[in-house]
Design a protein that fits this description.
mainly beta
């Protein structure tokens, strides 16, 4: 049995870049940083940062491009892929990247902007459609024992 699976949680190092292939498919490329903390043999705290190149296709590419920006937290599940090409200098180049199969966007701070094509940035407060309904358990209409959970 073989397995090619990557799970990362990190922060975007720059705004995602959306492109369209000649066949019309949407693809977004972005990079995330992950940190590792540990104590060395002398007890000193150490930190190491790794950078990962991510590629998302189709609807996921659109969502990442629209709702993510530099610094946002994101979780990626995907697979490693190595591809090669010939550079302008005739040298063969290789890169290993993660092809996203599942993406989960992390929480955003209140008032942060979302990006959308052809429009100005809007804050979450501007996009807010309605307040969360409040359930009043002291009301005669709803009894705690009637709740299914």
């Amino acid at each position: 049995m073989n397995l090619n699976k990557v799970v990362l949680i990190g922060r975007l190092t720059a705004d995602p870049e959306l492109r369209t292939t000649p066949s019309g498919a949407h693809v977004t490329s972005f990079s995330i940083a992950t940190n590792r903390n540990w104590a060395d043999k002398d007890g000193n705290k150490r930190e190491e940062t790794e950078f990962h190149n991510i590629v998302a296709w189709g609807r996921q590419a659109d969502v990442v491009n629209q709702f993510s920006k530099k610094g946002n937290l994101i979780m990626i599940e995907g697979r490693l892929q190595t591809r090669s090409w010939e550079g302008k200098d005739g040298q063969t180049r290789k890169t290993t990247e993660i092809v996203a199969e599942r993406i989960q966007l992390g929480p955003r701070a209140a008032g942060t902007a979302t990006r959308s094509a052809g429009s100005e940035d809007k804050t979450e407060a501007d996009n807010k459609q309605e307040d969360m309904p409040v359930i009043d358990l002291d009301s005669d209409d709803i009894k705690p024992e009637d709740l299914p959970f």
